[in-house]
Amino acid sequence: MAEDSVVLRDESGGEHLVTRRSDGALMVSGEAMHVDAAVDGSVIVRDAAPGLAWTVAAGNLRWVFSEGEVYVLEAVQRTGRARRTPTDQGPVVAPMPAAVRSVPVAAGDRVRRGDVLVVLEAMKMELPVRAGADGQIERITCREGDMVQAGQELVRLV
Question: Cβ–Cβ contacts within 10 Å for residue 156, how many?
C-alpha cells in the first residue's frame, strides 16, 4: 500500500501533516501514532497515552472527539487520490447523527469560509458546522430541534 498524506489545518490556523504509512501507522507532524479503527466509527489509540476517539469526515472537514473535547480540522492539501478542494461549494452535510441546536444564518446570506452555518449537538457536545468556502446560502434544509443523520444535507452554498 502506498503512503497517503493530508495536511490538516486546525481552528487556530496551525497545520499538521498526517501520513498513513505502508505499515498502517500514522505519522502526525513527524510523530508515529498507532491506531485501530473500530466498526462503530471510533479509533483506538495504542500509544503513550492510549485512549478512545471518534472521527467523522464530511467533505474537507474532519471532527475528532476525544476526552470530552471536539477538534475541527480542515483538509487543505492532499497527496494521493484527488479530493474536493476547500473552495468547492455545494451541500454542507451533517458529520454524524445529531440534534440541530441553532441555525444562525438564513437563505440568501453571504458567508465566508469558516463562518458557522449550523450548530449541532451530539454526545452532550456542541458541534459548529462551518462553511468550507465563501459563498451565498441557496437554501437551508434543517431547523432548530430537527434530528439529522450523518451525510444529511443541512445547507447548500452557491
Answer: 17
Per-residue pLDDT of the chain (158 residues; tens, 9 = 90+): 445 777 888 777 778 788 877 776 777 777 777 777 666 556 677 765 656 777 777 667 777 777 777 788 888 765 444 444 444 467 888 888 899 999 999 999 999 988 999 999 988 888 888 888 889 999 999 999 999 987 788 999 88
Q: 36 near 43, Cβ under 8 Å?
A: yes
Q: Domain limits at 142? A: 91-157
- Which strands, in side-by-side order, build the sheet including 147-148? 125-130, 116-122, 98-102, 147-148
Is 152 inside a domain boundary? yes
Instruction: Kindly report the pTM of this predicted structure.
Output: 0.54
d(CA 61, CA 8): 9
The β-bridge relationship of strands 42-45 and 35-37 is antiparallel
Question: Residue 144: inside a domain, yes or no?
Answer: yes
Q: Which residues pair with 37 in a beta bridge?
A: 43
Alpha-carbon dihedral angle through residues 4, 157, 146, 38, given to the nearest 10 degrees: 0
